[in-house]
Amino acid sequence: MLQTKVIPISYLGIKKRLTLACLSYIIINSVHAAPLGLPKSTAKVGYAIGAANVSVDDPETGSSTKWGVQPTSLIYTDWLVTDIRYWTTLYYLKTKLDASTDNTGQDATRFGVRFSLQKSLRLTHAWAPWFGIGIDVSRAQYTVRHTVDEEGFLLETFPDRSETTAAVVFSALSEWSLTRDWSVGLNFEQSLPITGDISEFLTSVAILYRY
Q: pTM above the 0.90 mark?
């Protein structure tokens, strides 16, 4: 006589729960998985210090150039797709331009933000630097404006002034890993003014942390 096999209800419940648990695990990991070709974490924060060759086109006497220190740059960067990322910098720059009979001496300070898109280009098997283009928006202040005669005595003084500037920024950056999450970068940037009277060439060293 044909016998019917009876499966306990408890066994069916356990099997159903296991199936649901497996499906949930697959879905959750699919949602949180990084895009194809990217590491799971690509966001980085960092700090940079650098030196800038600053040029100011003064309305009174013309342009003058001086190297200055950019002591504070806060960085945030993240990848958009493979080999393309955005790079944002909040920075503070200070320099002192020398006075002469033809150039206005002044203290120049600048607070600003830079945003650029960068692409990694593999130049050799082991070296793939980043090249970028972006925009800079800043607030510049010029104080203690004056000229001096040939012997260094005060010749003329001018009122302090300030301006909001915008510039196009071109950048080149190379990074080297220190540990799994820490890296160091060497950065070169050239800003060309769209509005305003200040431009600069910047060289900086950055410490970056991936989180």
A: no
